[in-house]
Specification:
single chain, 502 residues, alpha+beta, six-stranded antiparallel sheet, four-stranded antiparallel sheet, 4 helices
């Protein structure tokens, strides 16, 4: 009887030769894989939030660098079983360090360019800056407006201008310039010969309004976007550290502090011994000015970055939840709410029973303060984050569409429109028939317009323009014939106005 030979098991090589490859096994991800993906997702979301929150290219580049560094550190420790993830792991393991060096080099280059091109003033021996009168309401192109030269300024120093015996007609003269360590975003406040102004260097400055010399400096724990409010020997200021500070105007010593749950960009309103302020925690607070204790807190649905207006026992506040609120000043109870089509960063202005406010939906609204009903709406072509100014039946406001509008308050019809070279988020100031406003968008690196404009409030014709070195979001303040304004070039400017404007 013949025996058959034993069957030999086939080797993997013979299977491959016959093309009989085993199908890949889909294994569920292990715990390490899940932890890694979760960690990476949280990291990316966090740094993306930081980049969008601060609108800085430096943050974004730093965030990418951080992600690459952590990827290179973590990926080799995981056994990633899928082909695509294994390829990502190998890529960063082999090239991650080179990519890291390239991005760090780009970051350093960007910082050098920002330091020497964007924020440094040009040099001139006489320290005098003039801005010439423009004959029409149509501005020349940004490149055609020559930047006047100013004396180089060191941090926390003042550059005085030589005294002028007379100011030429139609020209504005730089009186002094004070250089802080950061951008000057909001409205400077002048009271009893002292100018109070905050900066993104986290400080509040008290300066002699006539000379620019420092009286005192108070450091906070965060950027200062809030405009100071001075009442009865106390200056109130908000900070990105989430606090509201009450300081003695004579020496800057703190009297009390009040802690909110978010950044405080809102400027402060004080009325009848109560301070009203909004916070990025979505609340409007009423605080006792004598001791800093809270009276009530009203919750909106999103950050409150605008300033509150108090009229006849009602607090009017806006929020980035798209709404305008009327709140009882005594109890903190809502009286009515008016909804717009987008976030509201503009502060409300109330005149003769009508509330005027802008919205990121591109509209300027007129609302009846008694019932919250819309009276009219005017549509621009950009976000309206500038706060309206109303003088003699005319509303003045800026828009992200690069324009300044003068509207008839009775029907919302445009009286005139003036075009600048960039975004207008500065709120107009009108004094003696002249409108002052800044221009420029700090969210972009293309500073196409960084000027302060003086316009005829009746006709919209440009009277003069003063160039800074970076966007001007700050609203101008005029006191005793001097215009004070801040810029993202880190400077506070004091400009002596022509006799016709002062």
């Amino acid at each position: 009887m013949q025996q058959s030979p034993p069957i030999q098991p086939s080797s993997p090589a013979s299977d491959d030769q016959q093309g009989q490859l085993k199908p890949p096994v889909n294994r569920p991800p292990d715990r390490a894989h899940i932890i890694f993906v979760t960690f990476l997702s949280v990291l990316i979301l966090s740094v993306t939030y930081l980049a969008s929150r601060f609108n800085e290219l430096v943050w974004l580049v730093s965030a990418i660098t951080l992600i690459i560094a952590i990827l290179q550190w973590l990926l080799p420790t995981f056994n990633l079983r899928t082909t695509h993830l294994q390829g990502v792991k190998n890529f960063f393991a082999q090239r991650g360090f080179a990519i890291l060096l390239i991005i760090l080099g780009f970051l350093m280059l960007f910082n050098l360019v920002a330091a020497f091109v964007v924020y440094n003033p040009l040099i001139n021996s006489n320290g005098l800056t003039h801005a010439t009168r423009m004959p029409t309401s149509v501005p020349s192109s940004p490149s055609a407006i020559a930047h006047s030269t100013v004396t180089p300024i060191l941090t926390a120093t003042v550059t005085p201008t030589p005294p002028a015996t007379s100011i030429p007609p139609g020209q504005v003269v730089q009186k002094w310039t004070f250089h802080t360590g950061g951008g000057v975003v909001d409205l400077p406040t002048v009271f009893n010969g002292v100018l109070y102004v905050g900066s993104t260097d986290k400080k509040l400055y008290a300066l002699d309004a006539s000379t620019g010399q420092v009286q005192w400096v108070f450091p906070t724990g965060g950027f200062v976007y809030s405009s100071p409010t001075v009442v009865k020997g106390v200056v109130y200021i908000g900070s990105d550290d989430g606090k509201v500070y009450a300081l003695d105007t004579s020496n800057g010593h703190p009297i009390w502090t009040f802690l909110t749950g978010g950044h405080v960009h809102s400027s402060l309103t004080v009325f009848n011994g109560v301070l009203y302020v909004g916070s990025d925690d979505g609340k409007v607070y009423a605080v006792n000015t004598s001791n800093g204790h809270p009276i009530w807190a009203f919750s909106t649905g999103a950050p409150v970055e605008s300033s509150q207006t108090v009229v006849s026992g009602v607090v009017y506040a806006t929020s980035s939840d798209n709404n305008v609120y009327a709140i009882d000043a005594r109890t903190g109870q809502q009286k009515w709410v008016f909804s717009t089509g987008d976030a509201v960063f503009s502060s409300p202005t109330v005149v003769n029973g009508v509330l005027y406010v802008g919205s990121d939906d591109g509209k300027v609204y007129a609302v009846n303060t008694s019932n919250g009903q819309q009276i009219w709406a005017f549509l621009t072509r950009g976000h309206v984050q500038s706060s309206p100014t109303v003088v003699n039946g005319v509303l003045y406001v800026g828009s992200d569409d690069h324009k300044v509008y003068a509207l008839n308050t009775s029907n919302g019809q445009a009286k005139w429109i003036f075009s600048t070279g960039d975004t207008v988020r500065s709120s107009p100031t009108v004094v003696n028939g002249v409108l002052y406003v800044g221009s420029g968008d700090p969210d972009t690196n293309a500073f196409s317009d960084t000027n302060v404009y003086a316009l005829n409030a009746n006709t919209g014709q440009q009277e003069w323009t003063f160039p800074t070195r970076a966007p001007v979001e700050s609203s101008p303040t005029v006191a005793n014939g001097i215009l004070y304004v801040g810029s993202w070039d880190y400077n506070v400017y004091a400009l002596t106005l022509p006799a016709s404007s002062s």
